[in-house]
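call fold(seq) -> tokens
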Amino acid sequence: MCSACGVLSGAPDWLDRAGNPNGIGTGDSRLAERQKLIGMVNKLLKPSRATLADYGEKLILRSPTGQTKIVDNLAHVWLEADNIGLRAVDPLDEEYLMQLI
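ret:
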């Protein structure tokens, strides 16, 4: 699917239900759930020194050198983080994981 179709569909992204896949009964607002997920992603991005922030329906990824990318969803975060971070994001690499501690 092209990115325009994804934007025009208006359907919630899967990350909008970070702590509750059913989408009901968590007690947290959609914004609170989204902020929790962005916090988790930022922990994973730490070794690359890129950071993620919420921007309404979009996400902003910033490099340590000031480069900024607006991304549509979490899948695009990983692709862009590899391009703008100081180090590729490989959550299966043991050395990378050790830097998260």
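Residues 3-98 form one domain.
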